[in-house]
Write a structure and sequence with these properties.
By secondary structure, the protein is of the alpha+beta class. The protein is 42% helix and 8% strand. The chain contains ten helices and five strands; from the N terminus they run H-H-H-H-H-H-H-E-E-E-H-H-E-E-H. It has a five-stranded antiparallel beta sheet. Strand 1 and strand 2 form a beta hairpin.
Length: 209
């Protein structure tokens, strides 16, 4: 699968918005968006004109895709699954993205970024209901318990990230037991609990063309 290996700060600057892709750096004054709030490239500061409807839809899709760290094919398959579900397609899409194991590991505070969360999952540091799962795209469901393996609880990055979780806060649909390095999925995430500015309807309009 193709992977983006460039600067993730460049992605935030392209959207002119913090996507929180680099952990603690995003909360400091070193954040690239704080220092240069315009798109990268030699014409970044001189771009003018109103963006077309298609341009707005494309940028929104790219933004959400980058927030969750998905490749184009993965994102489109997730959208198709959301479209087949009952309810509002846009809300279903965001719910499916939130229920990915790597995202839940990040939301619980076991990792400082979703990229780091994917690494912990792939390397076998994460368990779901007591069983090791090494697939970042695996989806959890209400009642599942996500935890860090006993042998992995002394990894400095995991400990530091868990200590800093108060800065991000844990969403209400999750319950964190920091002492035991575990968390429980209490319910399905609702749209109101997703605080990142995302206009999912634009993504639905893009794929409905």
């Amino acid at each position: 699968m193709a992977r983006y290996r460039g600067s993730v700060c460049r992605l935030c600057r392209r959207e002119v918005q913090k996507l929180y892709l680099k952990g603690d750096r995003c909360y400091s004054d070193k954040c690239a968006v704080e220092r240069r709030a315009f798109p990268p490239g030699q014409h970044g500061q001189s771009r003018r004109g109103k963006m077309s409807d298609y341009g707005l839809q494309l940028r929104e899709k790219q933004k959400v895709k980058r927030i969750y760290g998905l490749a184009e094919k993965q994102f489109k398959l997730t959208y198709k699954r959301a479209a087949r579900m009952k309810g509002v397609t846009g809300h279903n899409l965001l719910m499916l993205l939130e229920l990915r194991l790597d995202n839940v590991v990040y939301r619980l505070g076991f990792a400082s970024s979703r990229a780091q969360a994917r690494q912990w999952v792939r390397h076998g540091h994460v368990q779901v209901n007591g069983r090791r799962v090494n697939i970042p795209s695996a989806r959890v469901k209400p009642g599942d318990v996500v935890s860090v393996r006993e042998k992995s609880r002394k990894i400095p990055q995991i400990v530091e990230s868990l200590e800093a979780v108060a800065r991000r806060t844990v969403p209400t649909w999750l319950e964190l037991d920091a002492e035991n390095f575990s968390g429980t999925v209490k319910a399905l995430p609702s749209r109101e609990e997703l605080t990142m500015p995302m206009q999912e309807q634009l993504i639905v309009e893009l794929y409905s063309r």
